[in-house]
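Sanity check

After download, print the first record. It should look like this:
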Amino acid sequence: MSNDYFKRIQVVQLYPQFAQLVAKLHVNCLARGSQYYATSGLRSVEDQDKLYAQGRTTPGDIVTNARGGQSYHNFGIAIDFCLDKDVTREGLQPDWNAEAYKVLAEEAVKLGLEPGYYWKFKDAPHVQLKISKAGLALLDLQKNYKNGGMKQVWSLLDSKNWS
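Expected structure tokens:
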């Protein structure tokens, strides 16, 4: 994976097969002329709870409906991206217009990933492993985490075919 596009996250903290799909997603989006930068990968339960509080008990806009332990980010199988709307300027100039993420969503679906672009609570920059295609649910991840941490979750995921 290109360091420029993934330098804001620790790719090694993502579930390896998901990271491989995200690398393909990145290449496919570039081929269509869209450069998306990863801004969030694995999140701790505490960090997720802070995001959940935003717009509810702390200042800011509501950005998630998932509490700690309820986000795919907590299991290393979700990533948020940002489109740089002005690549001529130094630093990342976020484009939060949902339509800017249509290419990301289309390419994610082609790879069997689940983009937040199509959700009722639209989260256009978000892409996650579509665990339902393997007969899994969030509860399965939570139970495995409780019984053995991330190693147990990834062992469960390893028992499925993601290609």
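If your output differs, re-run the checksum step. Summary of this record's structure: The chain has one domain: 3-132.
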